[in-house]
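Task: complex structure prediction.
Instruction: return structure tokens for all chains below.
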Amino acid sequence: MLIIMEQGEYEKLLERAYSALPKEALTKERFEMPVADSFIQGQKTNVKNFGSILKTIRREPEHMLKYITKEIGTQATTQEDRLVLNGKFTSKQVNDIFTNYIRMYVLCHECSRPDTKIADEHGVKLLKCEACGASSPVKRL
Ligand SMILES: [Zn+2]
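Output:
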């Protein structure tokens, strides 16, 4: 069966569908949590798409490396676009750490949008949201 919609009908339908969604669902839908693509090689764990994840979340590699090193308790380095961890870690372990970092240091604690930056104000690290204007203190690494 073929349904022909009048021009503008589809947009109207979309609009209706969106306005029926709770606000929170809408904002969360905008950001897709990146998935770390990792594999183990010898005694090391490689994350192939580290570079592209950093681009998506707009964070400096040094900051995330610091976090990862602390959380995972091992040395981490970057090689071009890759992240290399000393030791063997499952994809789940790697992704848990990435997700925690993104929740803490990327997504706004108020509106969950990723349009944020980390600012330093009087020695306090703040996660500032460009979307809703909220700023939340975050742990210094
Ligand atoms: Zn916000």
